[in-house]
């Protein structure tokens, strides 16, 4: 899983980078085989003026599924990272489960079609054998 963490309008500290990497790892490793790339953009919207302006934009690029894009804005950047990664993890699990359900339904429908086609072929053979 390739992780790219970017800081906009401020310097990214080692502790903030490590926190972001740890939270991404905790939230996304359960389904990491589906993830191609993760891009996290951290920004301070208002700069030194303060306020609820610490923004975390998270994009999880998946193989064969639409991307997951989560955004969160908080007073504290650590909280924004925590919330965004948690939501991304829940969304990822939900998408993967849905994909597995759809694949299982398709396989089941395909098997039923094969069984029906085979039974139909048997009936046709019996019918032509009697004639």
TrEMBL record:
- InterPro entries given for it? RHF-like (IPR036567), RHF/RaiA (IPR003489)
Query: What organism does this protein naturally occur in?
Result: hydrothermal vent metagenome
Q: Name one Pfam family in it.
A: Ribosomal_S30AE
UniProt-recorded name of the protein: Ribosomal subunit interface protein
Which SUPFAM superfamilies does the protein's record reference? Ribosome binding protein Y (YfiA homologue)
